Amino acid sequence: MNVHSFNDVEGLRIAAEMERRGGEYYRRAAKLSHSPEAVDLLLFLAEDEGRHLAEFNRLAERVARERPDAPEYDADTNAYLSAIAAEIVFPGGLMALGAKHGFDSPQAILEGAIESEKDSILFYSALASATQDENSRAVFREIERQERGHLNQLMQMLSRIDA
User: Fewer CB within 10 Å: N-end or C-end of the chain?
Assistant: First the structure.
């Protein structure tokens, strides 16, 4: 897992951006699906990403308050961080994932979501290991813990489909 050069606050902003992009991805995929069951699943996943986004924003704000030297970002920096987030969670974008997993099969959707969660967990683990700040490490570990819980939930949902 390649961790780009950025600080802890930027890492947390990327975490939030990854959740925002995940929610957007699932909402867009729901519009492309022809299966009512898949649409319901995609919208559920989008709502779940929204809950994670709110939580990760809260954690990022906490770290930013503790680090008054945290940088402000211009539009170019925001675009750069967004691009990093896109490549971590949904490499190739909506169409690449749609071609690989499709938008009509709940099983394929869950398999794609599980891949994404695994990539996210690796990213947060790398950030936690790389930081020198104990408070930031604790926040990254908390995000990693939450993502592992989400991964477990997705795997349970997949096992019920496979059964």
Answer: C
Q: What is the total residue count of the chain?
A: 163
pLDDT digits (tens, 9 = 90+) for 11-27: 888 888 888 888 998 99
Residue 1, pLDDT > 60, answer no
SS in 3 state form for the chain?
Answer: CCCCCCCHHHHHHHHHHHHHHHHHHHHHHHHHCCCHHHHHHHHHHHHHHHHHHHHHHHHHHHHHHHCCCCCCCCHHHHHHHHHHHHHHHCCCHHHHHHHHHCCCCHHHHHHHHHHHHHHHHHHHHHHHHHCCCHHHHHHHHHHHHHHHHHHHHHHHHHHHHHC
Residue 80 is encoded by which pair of tokens? 């750069």
Query: In whole angstroms, what is the distance from residue 112 CA to residue 98 CA?
Result: 9
pLDDT at 102: 74
Q: Dihedral of CA 92/94/97/99: which sign?
A: negative
